[in-house]
Design a protein that fits this description.
By secondary structure, this protein is mainly alpha-helical. 81% of the residues lie in helices and 0% in strands. This is Pro-sigmaK processing inhibitor BofA. It holds the Pfam family BofA.
Amino acid sequence: MGKIDLLAALCAAGLAIALLAYVIRNPLRFLGRFVRGLVVGGAVIWAANWLGQAHQFHVPWNPITAAILGLFGLPGALALLWLRWWLPV
């Protein structure tokens, strides 16, 4: 094996490692953002329920509502409020 072949093999290996790192990093980044959104969504639901006690307002506390708030942010919160008033339980 010549020096050129060794250099080409090292470049190919480095490129493969960089590609693998990129593929692994992005799903982990998405998972991290999703978990952070769940935590923030849960905190917002807790705060809304705590503040809404005086007006008999309550948003159900479950992973689905937290995920909606965490993933969609303010539009998700407005959608949950609209559903809560539109479908009184």
